[in-house]
Each structure stands twice: as C-alpha cells, then as structure tokens.
C-alpha cells in the first residue's frame, strides 16, 4: 500500500508463456504486459485460460515454456510461496477463504508474509475499505454471505501489502449492487493505495470500463488488446461479450 | 468404591499416554489426510532413546531424579523429532502428488522398517529398567483396600495436561498454528499467501513426534519394560483413540485417549483382562455407527 506509481515502466511481463494441465495445453504462448499503476483486465469466455494465466503468474502450475518477470526479476521457476512475498497477492477464483477460521484469522493469514509492524495500519485500511469485515471479525468466515466472502478475499490479499493485486472474477455470483461496490473499491485501491491491478472478469462491460487496458483471451491465446474504452467500442467485442449490452 | 477410584486413577494415567500419541495421528491426518502408520514406531524409537539415556545418565552419575528426567525428556524429544522429520521427508513427501494410497503403503513399510531396524540394533529381547520414580500418596485407607496415587502417576497426568495446554495454545493462537490450520483447509490458498506448505507439514510431523517422545519417556518410567514391538500396540490403541475422539480434532484425540485408557482399565478390573482390547474396539465400533465423525469430529458442512 505504499509504492508510488512509476508509469509507464513495466511491472509484470509475461512473454511466450505456455501452461499445461497434463497433456492439455491451457495457455498457448501468451504475451501480456502490466505497467506500474495500471488496471489491466483479461476478458474471455469460460475455459479461455484466464484463471490459468493468473495462477501461472503465481507459479501453480508453473509455465512449461516462456518467461514471467516481475519488477525485473524472473519468477517463472520460483515456488509459489516465494513469488507472493515479492509483492504479488491474489484473490483467487472461488474466493478460497478459510471457512473454518474467523474473519480476523483470515485477515491475519493475509499478513503472514510481511512485517507484523504494519499489521494495525493495514487492518485499519482494509476495514475502512470494507467496514463489514470489522463488524464480522469474530465470526467464522464460512458463515459470511457471498459478497462478504469476496470482500474478505480482497481484504486478505491487501494485507500482504501487494504492489500487484491479481483478482479473479470478483463479481462472480454477486448481486449488482455489491458488484458495483466491489468495483468502486478496486478503483479506490488502484488510485489511493497505488496498487497495480490485474483483473480477470466475465463481466466484460464493468471490467473494461474500469480498466486502463484490456486483453481478450480466446482458447489460450490473446486475440485482441488495447485501451479499455477502445475495446468496448469494438463490434466483435460487443457481439461476443456484451450481447444485449447494458 | 475404593477399588473404583483406584481404577479411575490407573485409567486416567494410561489414557494420558494414549492421548499424547493420538495427537500425532490426528494432527498429521488433519493436515495431509493420511494415517501415519509409522507414528507408533516413532514412539517406540523414543522409548529406546529414553531408556538408553536413563542408563547413560546412571553411568555418568547424574542421579538427581528431576534433573535426569528433564534431561532425558529434552534429548528424547529432539532425537525423536529428527526421526519424525526424516520419515516424512523420505517416505511421504516424495509421494505427495501421487495417488492417495501410496503414502499409506509407504507408511506401513516405514513402520516395518523401523521395527526391524531397532530389532537388529537392540535385539529382540525385552529391555527392563529399574523403577526410577518410586513412592506415592495414600488417598483412602479402608479395612479392605488402599487407594494410592503414585508420584509417577501425578507426573504423567500433570505433564500431559501441561503439554496439551501448550499445544492447544500453539494451534489456536500462534502464526504457526494458523498456518497449520490454513494448510489443513486449503493448501493451495495457503501457498498463495506465502506459506511454505512443505515446511508446515514437516513441522507438524516434528510436533507429533515430540509429543510421542514425551509419551515414550512416561511409558518407560511407568512400565519399565520395552521391546521393539511396543510401537505397534500403543500405536493401534492411540490411532483408535484418535478415531474415537474424531480424527483431525485435538481435544478429540485427548478425550479419545482418556476413554480408551479408562475402558481398558475398567474392563480389566471388573471383567477379564484378556478381553480388554475387545472392549476398547467394541466401543469404537459403536461410536462410529452412531457418530461416524467421532465424538468431537465436526461434520463437513460449509456455506459456500
């Protein structure tokens, strides 16, 4: 939550990445760049490889070919628990909160990889973004509603003071009002806390409106890329992802 | 009545030892979903280490009993933990990504290996040691029966209680304990938060082995006789205790240990000593029929 943005230097660079699940090639040579201070979104249909790309950045599974560098360091072959201590945090698909722990313990888990001296300050910031987490702090996380779980997942990720935040479908299965609230917080995290965001979404309209740039992923390959509002205007995007647009 | 109280004291003592071993089963099961069948044999190794240590201390003339016991406890805990760690490193970690039964078979192999290793090194005959802590307190004296609690029984119950409290604290309130619970629930997510999952699993084996080591020192003091096969017997009882209490639950392991100890003792006292194992396992079967998750096991219902 501290670094000042330094655009347009590249923060995360993914080049020629191939990832396999067994014999299935999920990513077929991906090139993506994320610059300091940006919100970059990846959109695409189910099974296009969006989640796989985020997980490959975190080294689980590792890329079979290609290179991923973060702030100039090659992280392609680094074990997952080391990658995330370099300043990358992920709120993964399906939120993956720890249901048997309390909300507060989940938050503590988020801060595992960094200096405990920042804990109070970071917790204050997270509960400022999501006041409901403070109210629910002694409740078991498994008893939270879907929206609250999503907030917890993002809050937990923020506790590790990331410079790059990977968000996998934060709007999935949530009511429109909650989705709006979550997207506002993502913008806030990006602008106020200067956290660079890589956002995977099915909700292409919201995502492209929010993002500085977007990539469209089709069958494990990048099909298109460009500034968010420009992609929104493209007829093929409107047809494929914004059918009946809002 | 006096007889009953005496049996209660004996049962709680035995149950404490079972409980300490049971925790090793339950913690490992909790974190990687595997029954570590070599755990009983790690306990047996601990018993041999502590017996040898007692003899060595006797030889070099350290005879102040509290100091000797403390020294033996510490050395046994450290060396047994090394065994626990090594077993995990050699026999289980390479099979982590394999099919579910592979580490189980590896565990049985490890158990046989450890038994034969000790049999070769130490011989198959039973090893006795003279009583180290003697004496006790007479609680009730009637014309027909005397109820006593030996100092050793007090030590065993107190040591168990103390260790349980320390472990409960570690699991519930330290970052190591939280990491362990996180790995238990979702290893992938734990690694995404920067937790070294392999290291956490290793530490779980080390903690289980350290508790088994304490149990083994208490066992040596209490029974004074060991051989290379005690691990199988104590292990299967402690495993039963863990399942009875609800595998994966720490208080469950302790409760299960106590219950198995009490059932065995009371059955031997009032019915027949030959069938004490039958009694213990019958209770297990009954509990599992009516509560498949064990007494304190939690059913897996989560709101998603």
Give your account of this protein's structure.
- The complex is a heterodimer of chains A (246) and B (304).
- Chain A is α/β, with parallel strands linked by helices.
- Chain A has helices at residues 50-57, 80-83, 103-110, 119-129, 131-135, 146-158, 176-192, 204-210, 228-233, 235-241, and strands at residues 10-21, 24-35, 39-44, 65-70, 73-74, 88-91, 164-168, 196-201, 213-218, 221-227.
- A six-stranded mixed beta sheet of chain A has the order 6-7-8-3-9-10, sandwiched between helices. Chain A has a four-stranded antiparallel beta sheet with strand order 2-1-4-5, with helices on one face.
- The longest helix of chain A is centred in the last third of the chain and has 17 residues, at 176-192.
- In chain A, 49% of the residues are buried.
- Chain B has 304 residues and is mainly alpha-helical.
- Chain B has a single domain, classed as ABC transporter involved in vitamin B12 uptake, BtuC (Orthogonal Bundle), CATH 1.10.3470.
- Helices cover 73% and strands 5% of the residues of chain B.
- Chain B has a two-stranded antiparallel ribbon with strand order 1-4.
- The longest helix of chain B is centred in the first third of the chain and has 31 residues, at 2-32.
- The model of chain B has no long low-confidence stretch (mean pLDDT 91).
- Chains A and B meet through helix 2 and helix 3 of A and helix 6 and helix 7 of B.
* Poorly predicted runs of 5 or more residues of chain A: none
CATH architecture of chain A: 3-Layer(aba) Sandwich
Gyration radius of chain A, rounded: 17 Å
If you compute it from the alpha carbons, what radius of gyration of chain B comes out, rounded to the nearest whole angstrom?
A: 20 Å
Q: For the residues shown, what is the average pLDDT of chain A? A: 91
Q: Low-confidence runs of chain B (pLDDT<50, min 5 residues)?
A: none
Q: Which secondary-structure class do the elements of chain A indicate? A: alpha/beta
* Second rung of CATH, namely the architecture of chain B: Orthogonal Bundle
Helix-strand topology string of chain A:
EEEHEEHEHHHHEHEHEEHH
* Overall residue-averaged pLDDT value of chain B: 91
